[in-house]
Amino acid sequence: MSSPDESLAVVRTVRKPLESYLHVLHALLLRDMRSRFGGSYFGYAVVVLWPVLHVFMLVLIFVLRGVPAPIGDNRSLFFASGAVPVLAFQYISREVMKAVMANKPLTYYPQVKLFDVILARILVEIVTGFLGLLTIFAVLIVAGIDPVPQDPFTAMCGYVTAIILGIGIGTINVSIVAFFPAWIIGFILFTIIIYTTSGVMFLPNLLPEQVYYYLKFNPAVQVIEWVRLGYYPDLPVTIDYIYTIMFGMTCFVLGLLMEKHVIRKIA
Length: 267
Hints:
Layout: H1 4-37, H2 41-64, H3 75-103, H4 114-142, H5 152-179, H6 183-197, H7 209-215, H8 219-231, H9 241-266
């Protein structure tokens, strides 16, 4: 049996590398936030409010045009419940890709790995996304609209899955942009197509069965339906939960494998 001193030495040996790694991650988080947001709270507030403005501009356009919600009696809730998850997916996937391009020189230090840069940006984007979600809730409450879904657990699971999907696609993007830097523009065009066809402004299940069948292969469609199912429990849709989650997780694993076995070799 080992002595207390030996056990303490083992704990310290394990703790020291962990503490060093956390210090590196903390430094990357601070640098990421200061470089992107100008080192000010105002700069960070702009980043948080940008997707919020996007959501409410969409809602305002459809309200002013008098476009009715395909389901429910509140247009703001319908359009926001579609825009919020797909924007979370798009912003995270795009910003993770941009993180590596912006912080590539840091990887020349032996303490900093490419995965650390990716992880730091993921954490920043998750926090930013949740702050944006809380801001949207606050604005809706001020406007006299109850933003709480009938099934909060279902809606939140859909939102978290959108984050997982964004992380997975973003990690894949890191590998693609390492070979084709122009992909950063191509991906923006790709997300526009995803945005307009994923069901933010309509109900995909009302389309012809043949069209709806193929749209369901787009995980963004299922994420939006997942969130909306929390607001409209009677919505006649079936979510393939395993497919949606595994799509994001598989992309994440493939992205990490490509980062380890391909990008590091050409770096």
